[in-house]
């Protein structure tokens, strides 16, 4: 059971539409930890930690997000592993 982390930057209509809260709920349902936070440029940063299968499912979900959002792009990059306790909305 290898644990890893990945950081995603999600662009589009992703602020003011409940994106972070839906992302947190989805992360918890996949047994992932991390956080989702708004960035000053209108994007949302999502750090996801857990097993690779769960991270892959989250990556696929982030490409469309909740129905209230309109995702234009998702950029992923490796992130140093951190033992987050749960999935937070920052």
UniProtKB/TrEMBL annotation:
<dbReference type="GO" id="GO:0003998">
    <property type="term" value="F:acylphosphatase activity"/>
</dbReference>
<dbReference type="InterPro" id="IPR020456">
    <property type="entry name" value="Acylphosphatase"/>
</dbReference>
<protein>
    <recommendedName>
        <fullName>Acylphosphatase</fullName>
        <ecNumber>3.6.1.7</ecNumber>
    </recommendedName>
</protein>
<comment type="similarity">
    <text>Belongs to the acylphosphatase family.</text>
</comment>
<keyword id="KW-0378">Hydrolase</keyword>
<dbReference type="InterPro" id="IPR001792">
    <property type="entry name" value="Acylphosphatase-like_dom"/>
</dbReference>
<dbReference type="InterPro" id="IPR017968">
    <property type="entry name" value="Acylphosphatase_CS"/>
</dbReference>
<dbReference type="InterPro" id="IPR036046">
    <property type="entry name" value="Acylphosphatase-like_dom_sf"/>
</dbReference>
<dbReference type="Pfam" id="PF00708">
    <property type="entry name" value="Acylphosphatase"/>
</dbReference>
<feature type="domain" description="Acylphosphatase-like">
    <location>
        <begin position="5"/>
        <end position="90"/>
    </location>
</feature>
<feature type="active site">
    <location>
        <position position="38"/>
    </location>
</feature>
<feature type="active site">
    <location>
        <position position="20"/>
    </location>
</feature>
């Amino acid at each position: 059971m290898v644990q890893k982390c990945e950081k995603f930057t999600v662009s589009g209509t992703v602020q003011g539409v409940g994106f972070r809260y839906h992302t947190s709920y989805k992360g918890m349902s996949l047994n992932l930890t991390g956080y989702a936070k708004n960035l000053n440029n209108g994007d949302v940063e999502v750090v996801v930690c857990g097993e690779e299968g769960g991270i892959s499912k989250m990556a696929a979900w982030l490409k469309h997000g909740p129905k209230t959002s309109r995702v234009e792009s998702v950029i992923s990059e490796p992130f140093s592993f951190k033992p987050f306790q749960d999935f937070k909305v920052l």
